[in-house]
Write a structure and sequence with these properties.
By secondary structure, the chain is mainly α. It has one domain. The chain contains one helix and no strands. The longest helix has about 40 residues. The relative contact order is 0.09. Keywords: Membrane, Transmembrane, Transmembrane helix. It comes from Nocardioides terrae. This is Flagellin N-terminal-like domain-containing protein.
Length: about 40
């Protein structure tokens, strides 16, 4: 039973760790698009 729970907890922790990186990528893309539109 414990072996089944551990990978799930590990996967959830990894998913939570990736979230700030995803937000950063989205924010950088939005800033880049804004600059491109502003200077064009």
């Amino acid at each position: 039973m414990t072996a089944d729970i551990e990978p799930y907890a590990k996967a959830k922790t990894q998913e939570d760790a990736e979230l700030p990186g995803l937000i950063l990528i989205v924010a950088m893309t939005a800033i880049l698009l804004t600059l491109v539109l502003f200077f064009s």
